[in-house]
Predict the 3D structure of the following.
Amino acid sequence: MSAHCQLTGARPGFGNRISHSHRRTSRRFDPNIQRKRYWLASEGRHVRLVLSAKGVKTVDLIGVEAAVVRIRARGVKL
């Protein structure tokens, strides 16, 4: 599963680990990605969305229908 949110577009961030001796090595900050299944009443079917934790809260706030409209506006096929 790719580490990006279909709704918010959150992707991994990159940075450095810094040890006690101050040596730097690469690291990756992954978003908290969840797979959630929602009932889409307008189409009479379930949709499975790959969302970050913030994306799940956004779907709870605006509703699944509005969230699917935003996802499709980004060009993602469901």
Notes: The chain has a mean pLDDT of 95. The chain has one domain: 13-74.
